[in-house]
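Collaborator request, handled under Task 6.
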Amino acid sequence: MSMQDLAAALQRVETVLQRRPDQGLHDDAPATARWQGGVRVESSHANGTRLLTDMPCELGGSGDKVTPGWMFRAGIAACATTSIAMGAAGEGIALDLLEVSVGSRSDTRGLVGVAEADGRAVYAGPRDMRLQVRIAAEGVAHERLRALVEVALARSPIPAAVQNPTPLALQIEFP
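Structure tokens returned to the collaborator:
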């Protein structure tokens, strides 16, 4: 889809949502994960897309697939990239380069249940995350591109969910 086509599509959606704000709230497609044995998991989407994850050999996996943590970072990066591209299209900016990288630093002790020396639990999630954006558009000032990225990231669902904790309701079923 060209940037002009994307901009037109976004304008149509915006027009509908301005007239009918209730159309904006919807249930997202669930991600369903099924254990495949060991620490290998197959995640699936209702459209048939399937992704396999595994852990490194040191954690009982084969190490031949990406980890769930990597998928989490990839989701943040992909969502941020999409939001920035949408913002650029909306502003009529023809991007020459857009690359987003998300890194993090984690403590494996939290995952395997090893406590701190004083007995406190070690946090299992990433201790910090870094989102790096490389962006270029001929003839567009760096300040305008920086503003574009900042606005787009504020509108980007997955980075927003990381920056502002989203409640996670737990439901356990016993078939």
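The cover message to the collaborator said: "The CA atoms of residues 39 and 60 lie 7 Å apart. The two ends are 45 Å apart (CA to CA). Please let us know whether this matches your experimental observations."
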